[in-house]
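Researcher: Next sequence.
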Amino acid sequence: MTAVRVLTVGLTVVMFGAIALSMATGDFGTEGSWILDNPWGRMTLVDLYVGVALLAGWVFLRERSPWVAVIWLPVFFVLGNAGTALYAAIAAFRTDDIRTFLLGARS
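Model: Next structure:
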């Protein structure tokens, strides 16, 4: 589990670092409209949100409380893969075996 913990924390740091750098050097209000004007930009958003929907299914399966899963949904939709990395890092520190990490406490 040490490798999983290092990987998930590392990916979380990378994602939040990339978000911070983009916020510091770009203007999403101006540049973000390009995403919706470009076919590949729209495809990227579809790809992201299909992935978020699949992730949400996994979270609902692995969490004991559906309310915990519901609380994570806006995090995933707003932060995308940064939210996913954060969830995975927290989950990795809450367990000592890969089966529970993947399947949750319900397994």
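Model: The two ends are 17 Å apart (CA to CA). The CA atoms of residues 9 and 59 lie 18 Å apart.
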